[in-house]
Amino acid sequence: MATFALPPGELPNFISPFISGPESNNVDLFQFASQLWRPLYWYGINGEFTINYHLGVGRPPAYSNHGRAVTITLNHYLWSGGRRVTNRDIELWMNLLRAEPAQWVGYVPGNIPDTLTGMSFPKSRPYQFSLTFNRAYSPTWILYQELSSIEPIPQRVWDRTSMQGPVGNYDMTRAGAIAVWKFLTAQSKDASTCASNPLWRVVDGPWKLSAYEPATRPRGPGRATDRIQRLP
User: Fold this and answer.
1) Residue 172's CB: how many other CB atoms inside 10 A?
2) Taking the mean position of all CA atoms in its chain, how far away is CA 162?
3) Which of 2, 6, 40, 168 has the greatest CB tally within 10 Å of its CB?
4) Helix residue ranges per DSSP H, the chain
5) What is the C-alpha to C-alpha distance for residues 191 and 226, in angstroms, rounded to an integer?
6) CA–CA distance from 138 to each of 52, 68, 74, 113 (Å)?
7) Has residue 6 got a pLDDT over 90?
8) Residue 19's pLDDT is what?
9) What is d(CA 201, CA 81) in angstroms, rounded to the nearest whole number?
């Protein structure tokens, strides 16, 4: 169990890691979703701003085609339901991003996904994927600016357009990906179900939300209203 202080007047209000800029705040980005879902690359080793390949989902990237292509193999990460994180979970994130880039808080015109000309998520190699860029960039820039923006999300649970409907491969078309994004966004804004919604119970980070009390009135500076439980 962990309890921590929050900035005065700010509380989590958007749980999905595909964070919407207009709907969210810095608490969602840096102190909430990031504790539940692990990004492709995690920063920080002994206080230094560098990539920690042991804590992130991705292994060191391998560049090819004179720096225009990159292939990434995934570490052995598991969703809380026991299934391993695969390239299909990366593909869902990327399809949502390409369908609705302007709705993602980290989008900057000219950066990912605008820099991409191709993506490959081979079924025969489920723990590996490749991206092709429109030109050669600095490998350091690609790693810190582009690849670190990617976050696997559980396709077997989240690739749906309603709570009642089945999980599918809706994200494989732009219209389907937009429908999935709209569904996840609507669910994410419902603070009353943050701790109970089965979507948010599937995580690959070190913590799972155990309780959440939506704020109905100011509670004073720095008082958190959510509790997160560390997974085994």
Assistant:
1) 12
2) 20
3) 40
4) 26-27, 33-36, 87-99, 139-141, 155-158, 174-188
5) 11
6) 19, 10, 22, 16
7) no
8) 79
9) 9
| pLDDT tens, position by position, 41-73 | 988 888 888 899 988 999 999 999 999 999 999
pLDDT for res 84: 97
What are the distances in angstroms from CA 232 to CA 55, 58, 72, 99, 198?
15, 21, 27, 36, 19
Phi, psi of 172 (to 5 degrees): -75, -10
| 143-163 per-position pLDDT tens digit | 999 999 999 999 999 999 999
Do 18 and 34 meet the contact criterion of CB atoms below 8 Å apart? no
Q: Three-state DSSP class for 72?
A: strand
> What is the spatial distance between Cα 207 and Cα 66, in angstroms, rounded to a whole number?
39
Residues in the chain: 232
The reported pTM is 0.87
Q: Which amino acid is at 58?
A: G
